[in-house]
Amino acid sequence: MAGITKLNHVVPGNVKPLILHGGAEYSITDLLTEKITPFASCDIRTVHNSAFTVNFTASAGLKFGHWEGPGMRLHFTYFKGKNIHGEFYDFNDEYSAIGLNMDL
Question: What's the CA gap between 27 and 80, in Å, rounded?
């Protein structure tokens, strides 16, 4: 999957208004049971602040419940790239997290 994001009213002016991004997700249904599905995904986004860089996010985990229905996902996520939070846009970040998401 791929896409483009256009930012409006960008401040400061050295931040470019277009972000290109792409990603992929892979799951293996019915490997463990019908209601437990392992998955992995990655997301890559271009960022052009003071220099052109790439933000990278990868996740892997298990979905509990039918893959295309409601359930919960337990996952490990890794991020490396420029900070995505407002005034810290030019800071480099690298972190990992364990998450629990509900698919309603």
Answer: 23
Considering the entire predicted model, what is its pTM?
0.81
pLDDT at 75 over 70: yes
Phi, psi of 96 (to 5 degrees): -135, 160
Lookup result for tokens 């392992």:
38
The identity of residue 43, as a single letter, is D
Domain boundaries, the chain: 2-103
Asked if residue 87 lies in contact with residue 81, where contact means CB atoms within 8 angstroms, the answer is no
Tell me the average pLDDT of the chain: 88
Q: How far apart are CA 35 and CA 85, in angstroms?
A: 36
52-64 and 2-6 strand pairing: unpaired
